[in-house]
Design brief:
Helix content: 25-40%
CATH class of the largest domain: Alpha Beta
Number of helices: 12
Shape: globular
Low-confidence stretches: none
Number of strands: 15
Number of domains: 2
CATH architecture of the largest domain: 3-Layer(aba) Sandwich
Bound molecules: pyridoxal-5'-phosphate
Radius of gyration: 23 Å
Order of helices and strands: HEEEHHEHEHHEHEHEEEHHEEHEEEH
């Protein structure tokens, strides 16, 4: 893609992608009376203006009805989570009965691993990407210890080649084959949180299954960012959070997917709670667990309605713009536009910025990770002072995530101007 780094080019692109832009439906944070340039939708998505309305609706039911909000009213709480099934399933490419919103992400990874990480004999290893998100590393380590295995030996990693920062699919597949019949589980972030690399999930899933392993995904940085086909790709299980690209409130509710080929397997163990019990007889409150014949069997507790209400507001917006598929069209161009501006400014100002995120749009979502080895921290602080909210990772990486729902091409152009000024005021060394 060829771009012009001008305001009019940016505005023309904003016009072209107007249908995928809902900026006016979000609260944009301000600093010093000016809207910021918000690049941290990969950390906490912005507040949809409709979230308050949906939360207040539930507050008012609670106020007026107390416990009677659970049953026999419009949008009764008992079924509230079911309203979110379809939009969630559309986001991840699943059947409606393969997804449910519940708990939080790390908790869900543990619960899903209770079902799907079943080390047996020499088949015990967990394979994950190097430098996976810390919580995922702790999950893999503690699950290994929990099963009496030594985490140092049991958790192994896909490593980039010497001198490279991202992974090659052929190397990942070779690693899976190498571990072979010792491999119990591939646990992969769909998009790596640090580099922004989007893995070839389908190819990894196939390779994992060929050696007899289970394939599970952490989609925290993928859901709402890239279209997915979890069912078709034959993924065994997945979990994600909703507060990043899904804009569903800080610490908001997580979502899970379990492929329906597993739903009715009586040999599959599960940690259970009353909300996973067969719905039609749940309130007989009998001993002996009878699971729902679908994803709901993994539910444990009755649902946190206020979190679901915030989630609903955001999911509705995804549906209105034509889903993540439609957003992805804008996202590819928006990120490429930002990339071209950064590279142009870097070159013209003779200030080295290496983008470590893959340059191929098929191998990334919206995020770009910038390696800034020359006064990087100082550059970041200057950008911050100018009204850019980005993310700094020690020792030398700035992550920027232009989110198609609320970021504009004009934001990218303005950012380019700020970047140039910030570089120009760095002390010369
Ligand atoms: C954001 C993120 C988490 C956070 O986990 P919580 O349980 O929601 O705190 C975990 N894993 C990955 C890959 C993430 O990006």
């Amino acid at each position: 893609m060829e771009f012009q780094n001008t305001l009019s080019a940016a505005q023309a692109l904003d016009h072209q992608f107007a249908a995928q832009t809902r900026r006016e439906d979000f609260f944009m944070p301000q600093k010093n009376g000016k809207e910021v340039i918000y690049f941290t939708g990969n950390s906490l998505g912005l507040q949809p203006k409709s979230a308050r309305k949906y939360i207040e609706l539930e507050m008012s039911k609670w106020e007026k009805r107390g416990v009677e909000g659970h049953f026999n009213i419009h949008e009764q709480w008992y079924d509230y989570h079911k309203m979110l099934r379809k939009p969630l399933a559309d986001l991840v490419g699943a059947d409606a009965l393969e997804v449910v919103a519940m708990n939080t992400l790390t908790v869900n990874l543990h619960l899903l691993m209770a079902s799907f990480f079943r080390p047996e004999g020499k088949r015990s290893k967990i394979l994950m990407e190097a430098a996976a998100f810390p919580s995922d590393q702790y999950v893999a380590e503690s699950q290994s210890s929990f099963h009496g295995l030594n985490p140092q030996e049991n958790v192994i990693e896909f490593l980039p080649r010497e001198g490279e920062l991202t992974l090659r699919t052929e190397d990942m597949i070779a690693k899976i084959k190498e571990v072979g019949d010792e491999l119990a589980l591939v646990l992969l972030g769909g998009v790596n949180y640090y580099t922004g690399q989007f893995f070839d999930i389908e190819a990894i899933s196939k390779a994992g299954h060929e050696v007899g392993a289970v394939v599970g995904l952490d989609l925290a940085h993928t859901v709402g960012n890239l279209p997915l086909k979890l069912h078709e790709w034959d993924i065994d299980f997945a979990a994600w959070c909703s507060y990043k690209y899904l804009n569903s409130s800080p610490g908001g509710i997580s979502g899970i997917f379990v492929h329906n080929k597993h739903h009715q397997n009586p040999a599959l163990p599960r940690l259970t709670g009353w909300w996973g019990y067969e719905e039609s007889t749940r309130f007989k409150m009998k001993k002996g667990f009878v699971p729902e014949p679908n994803i709901d069997a993994w539910q444990m507790s009755n649902a946190p309605i206020l979190l679901l209400a915030a989630h609903r507001a955001s999911l509705e917006m995804f549906e209105e713009v034509g889903g993540v598929q439609a957003l992805r069209k804008k996202s590819k161009v928006l990120t490429a536009f930002l990339e071209s501006i950064i590279l142009e400014v870097s070159q013209e100002e003779d200030y080295p910025i290496q983008i470590i995120t893959p340059s191929d749009p098929e191998e990334r979502g919206c995020q770009l990770s910038l390696l800034v080895r020359q006064q990087g921290r100082s550059l970041f602080e200057k950008l911050e002072a100018a009204g850019v909210i980005g993310d700094w990772r020690e020792p030398d990486v700035i992550r920027l995530a232009p989110v198609p729902l609320y970021n504009t091409f004009e934001d990218m152009f303005n950012f380019g101007q700020m970047l140039r000024e910030a570089i120009q005021t760095l002390s010369k060394v």
